[in-house]
From TrEMBL:
Organism superkingdom: Bacteria
UniProt organism field: Rhodoluna lacicola
Protein name: DUF1761 family protein
Keyword annotations: Membrane, Transmembrane, Transmembrane helix
Keyword Transmembrane in annotation: yes
């Protein structure tokens, strides 16, 4: 495989889209309050205790995770193009969805069930659905962007 065939600008744009989707998905008016409560935790108030370094680690880590996921998907799509040179946005979105569900989502199911702080499997399922829902949406959109941007 020739990594120079990967459109790295598309990877960058797709990773930014994933980061933005994550910001909206876990926003204070969307899934964040439901997600945090399902973990048996309280929605924290802004107490000013988070340092700049901690914020950089959290947001930098979130972006790095998005970038690695999208770059990996780009490699998979490039390999798929060997079998189907006409691969486009629809096929990219489909493959992003398949890998998001098949590998991304279900790789973490047992971790969530057995790692749930409150020990409630129904809460664990709710937390898992919120978390992996975002991953699946992000990878589907990333696959669309990378597949369409040839």
């Amino acid at each position: 495989m020739d990594f120079s065939q990967i459109n790295w600008l598309a990877v960058f744009v797709a990773s930014i889209s994933s980061f933005a989707i994550g910001a909206i998905w876990f926003g204070p008016k969307t899934f964040y309050p439901i997600w945090i409560k399902a973990q048996g935790r309280e929605v924290p108030t802004n107490d000013g205790k988070t340092t700049g370094a901690e914020m950089a680690l959290m947001f930098g880590g979130a972006y790095l995770g998005a970038l690695v996921q999208v770059a990996t998907l780009a490699v998979i799509l490039e390999l798929a193009k060997l079998a189907n040179p006409a691969l486009g946005g629809a096929e990219g979105a489909f493959l992003g969805f398949v890998f998001g569900v098949g590998l991304g989502a279900f790789a973490s199911l047992s971790h969530r069930f057995f790692g749930q702080a409150n020990g409630n499997p129904y809460s664990a399922l709710k937390v898992w659905l919120i978390e992996v829902g975002q991953d699946v949406v992000c990878l589907t959109i990333a696959g669309l962007i990378i597949g369409a941007w040839q």
